[in-house]
Amino acid sequence: MRNLILVPMLLAGSLLSTGCAMGVAVRPPVETTIYVPAPPPRRAPLPPPPPPPQRGPMSRNEAISLGQSYCYDRGFDCWLDGANLAKHDSLWKVKFTARGRRSQGKLHLEFDAWSGDLVRADEKGQLRKHG
């Protein structure tokens, strides 16, 4: 009978010593530290790009090409008579002999040397615009 009382007491003692006699365990709260990386350092803004280089007056070949485009747009076949830079290098004078379906004559064109804009066009002879 002694063994009957001794076994439950030993069992109860072992349970109480481990802290799980009631099945309840009290744990201290765990502090959690979240690592957030620092933002990257800000870079200084880039300096503005340099201005484009100043372009000089268009070349003789560019002036001739613009004149040939003028001829083509009007349906003429053109042969170059000459191209000269005039008025203090600000104006290209381009001269062509032009021939259309039923006309022929001289074509004198003047282009602004800096912008390439057509300043003047003289169609001499029997040149006419055919649509």
TrEMBL record:
Region Disordered, residue ranges: 37-61
Source organism: Vulgatibacter incomptus
Signal peptide: 1-23
Keywords, ordered alphabetically: Lipoprotein, Signal
Full protein name: Putative lipoprotein
Pro residues: bias regions: 37-55
Organism domain of life: Bacteria
